[in-house]
């Protein structure tokens, strides 16, 4: 209870943690060693202490207060440990203070930091009357206010952490330095301390890591069905296997390492593989997780369902083929009740069996039309006396239908009367105008087959026929997308003379180039113009897209020329060339090999020559080989001569101006030997052209 203290050259302590560690903290000495006391905080522990009687403590406090009161200094009673306080003790302490004059009581908790500043502030106000009177708040109300304050500060601090910390690799030392100037960080540390601030940071980092792991897990699980489809697409291979044997089977697959990675350490989410975002292969130990096991079972079920659906589709087709109720042209609505059963409805969706029925109907209709066409040929005498304009009267159509009406092949098209009548009119038109275009054989017409066989034969063979001295010009189409055609045309022109002349085997030829890079249906991009008759075409590609452009352009150009008597584009010699991408380099080996394989397949389909970079030496970023481009042009020149001969010989045979012997002579010229001529000629002469004989009768050779 002394009010004047003396302790010269003593250090000031701000916390008991500094005891024994004075050198680690800022050292301040007591001023002059003298310390006057201005007031007292009389502390009362209201918690339930062991081996301690609260009544005795209160008696001691009462005696102590009597001593303090003699000093005439202000006194504030502080109830401590209220977070563990006993209600009776608190009530008795208030009763004690109430019996004293102007004795104020503050309920505190140092552990929760509740009302601690209020206790000192209340005493300061009693010492310095000029200060405003502090409002004393009960412990639980103050605790509620502080909890709200801490919660608000925590929310702001967590927002700050989430804004600054974006990676689970961040460390506290670096992040705390970044956050120190922020008021959100300062307020929370002031209220809760650095330890709790670091704890919240670590929780956030752990949450980021778990989110990252979960994203990787979802990525792997999304890829797992694709891997199973690629490695084990056959149900018979895995249906009888246990999970362990199925995993062994997966490891034995050639493409296993393309889809999976076997880690030395497990589990995968505790290894560095988690952070290897460039490696999207599935950790093999992921298959042991319940989610992966479920996906494997779903893969098995999918394969079983696919097999069952395939069996149902096959059974449905067999049912259609065996049913007498399915006739050409019968709508699905009429046939449904005779065809469907419960299994079909259970395993097949409506679009599926509608598609199958549609394909079956098409087959039925096509077969019925072929049979009906044969029927019309058998009754050819019905069409002899028609007018030359081939427009039969209603009476004549009635007679035709009456004669044919009892035939089953006529009745088969009873639900397709409009198409049946159209076939009759088309047949009449063919009788009076027999051409390739009106022939009911369509693509099987022998006239068309003759030209196709001859043309394809001599596009493939680039032998050297007798030189034609009149050939002195080569018209060359260069087809390529995205500048390929123009660039190659410029390189070829660089090899020509100043007046676009090119020397082949010592002879000068005029070389006309037509680079095309757009839609060939447009006149500006047409292969053939009134002033340009192409003798050959160089087709350039360096990617899958440019190869597709070449194929589509060739098909479009041929479609545009169908029906024309001078249809030379169908036999136009083609050379498909794979060129390198701009900027040089051969690209990736796998990509180059893939482009070569695709080019070879297209060349086989188009019946044309294929040149790859290794054989042709043609590519951007290097000089073009004059010898090699000369060989390409020479081959096109040979094909041009052969094509002229084929067209002349075929036309002569068709018009009756030549017989088979004449044609064989022409074949010998083109093939270079009689055996090669017979190889081409025999299939043509063995065919049966559909030509009505003079005076009627069935079609004859």
From TrEMBL:
Residues 468-645 form the PG1 pseudoGTPase domain. The keyword Iron does not apply. Residues 293-320 form a coiled coil. Residues 664-701 form the PG2 pseudoGTPase domain. One of its GO terms (molecular function) is GTP binding. Residues 248-302, 309-363, 365-430 form the FF domain. Keywords: Cell projection, Coiled coil, Cytoplasm, GTPase activation, Nucleotide-binding, Repeat. One of its GO terms (cellular component) is cell projection. GO terms for biological process: regulation of axonogenesis; regulation of cell size; Rho protein signal transduction. Pfam families: FF_RHG35_4th (PF23083), Ras (PF00071), RhoGAP-FF1 (PF16512), RhoGAP_pG1_pG2 (PF19518). SUPFAM superfamilies: FF domain, P-loop containing nucleoside triphosphate hydrolases. Signal peptide: none annotated. InterPro entries: FF_domain, FF_domain_sf, FF_RHG35_4th, P-loop_NTPase, pG1, Rho-GAP_domain, RhoGAP-FF1, RhoGAP_pG1_pG2. It is found in: Cell projection; Cytoplasm; Endomembrane system. This is RHG35 protein. It comes from Tychaedon coryphoeus (Karoo scrub-robin). The gene is Arhgap35.
